[in-house]
Design a protein that fits this description.
The chain is an all-alpha fold. Helices cover 75% and strands 0% of the residues. It has one domain: ABC transporter involved in vitamin B12 uptake, BtuC, CATH 1.10.3470.
Length: 309
């Protein structure tokens, strides 16, 4: 595939996949180390009804209404979890499982009953996104990257995810030391005066922002996979947090690129006529990478131990 084909058809979807994967993997490292990895799964379940309600109210799929809708859904879910826990007198994990599943199911029902024919927002896109359709129609080749008129028509999901990735990276860099200390030794962090509660909440909010920004483009499948698989695989490669972050970025990028290529060309290589979902293949590749790291990673036997600071 030459530049005149690759740039308009594949460059933007591939870059969006990479940005989404890395934006989710960065906070995912700390969530995995804090044994809160399923928060990423929870976020992807909770945001769906909030996003759908935001669309029904505004009539458009836009970042700020989606963020506000997701925030409202998160608030409702917290209140509902606490209510179920207290009234039903069951443990928090069971209450979370009930509420997250119920809210996701409610979001799916809202989608099925809503008129979303004019936008990329339906049950299929909620799960798999619309990564393959994010092509750059006005691009003619690599020269379009320097053409202001062509750049003005680039899919909005690309700059949105670029800004989101930059925000997540800045949060990680600015709060690196507090995140590092509170992740490895919360008691010590509180002893020296760190506000571990707000810091943990901030980490979850950043993860939620990454999930909501990615939701329209890639759906919930990639979001769930990238919060967990690259960080977990990276954990098996090293006992140093800095190295783990680097490994997770590498694995996330590799999963996005290989997954996108295999989704489009893999079926053709084995004699099939149709391509498969890029989001599903990217998530599958990330799982394969995790499996290989579990089998061959140098620290696979000590995976449960906390890495060195």
């Amino acid at each position: 595939m030459n530049g005149s084909e690759f740039v308009p058809l594949s460059l933007v979807p591939m870059l969006i996949g990479i940005f989404v994967a890395v934006a989710c993997a960065l906070p995912g490292n700390f969530l995995v180390l804090r044994r809160q990895a399923l928060i990423g799964d929870a976020i992807s379940h909770v945001v769906l009804p909030g996003i759908v309600v935001a669309f029904l109210v505004t009539g458009v799929v836009s970042t700020w209404p989606m963020l506000l809708g997701a925030a409202g859904a998160a608030l409702v879910s917290v209140m509902a979890i606490e209510g179920v826990r207290r009234l039903g007198k069951i443990e928090s994990g069971a209450a979370m499982g009930v509420i997250f599943t119920a809210m996701f199911a409610g979001g799916v029902l809202l989608l099925e009953q809503s008129d979303t024919s004019n936008v990329h927002l339906d049950v299929e896109h909620a799960l798999y996104g619309n990564l393959e359709s994010l092509i750059w129609l006005d691009a003619t080749g690599w020269g379009s990257l320097l053409d202001p008129e062509a750049l003005a028509t680039i899919p909005v999901e690309l700059p949105r995810m670029a800004v989101t990735l930059l925000f997540v990276a800045l949060f990680t860099a600015i709060f690196w030391r507090p995140l590092k200390i509170s992740t490895f030794d919360g008691g010590f962090a509180r002893t020296i005066g760190m506000k571990t509660g707000p810091l943990g909440l901030g980490l979850v909010i950043v993860a939620a922002i990454a999930a909501v920004a990615a939701f329209d483009a890639v759906g919930s499948i990639i979001v769930i996979a990238m919060f967990i698989c690259p960080p977990a695989a990276a954990r098996m490669m090293t006992n140093r947090l800095e190295h783990q972050i680097a490994w997770s970025v590498l694995f996330a990028t590799l999963a996005a690129v290989l997954g996108y290529v295999l989704a489009g060309y893999g079926p053709l290589w084995i004699g099939m006529r149709d391509s498969v979902s890029a989001a599903g293949m990217i998530a599958t590749v990330s799982g394969v990478i995790l499996g290989l790291a579990a089998l061959m990673g140098p620290h696979r036997q000590r995976g449960a131990a906390a890495p060195a600071a």
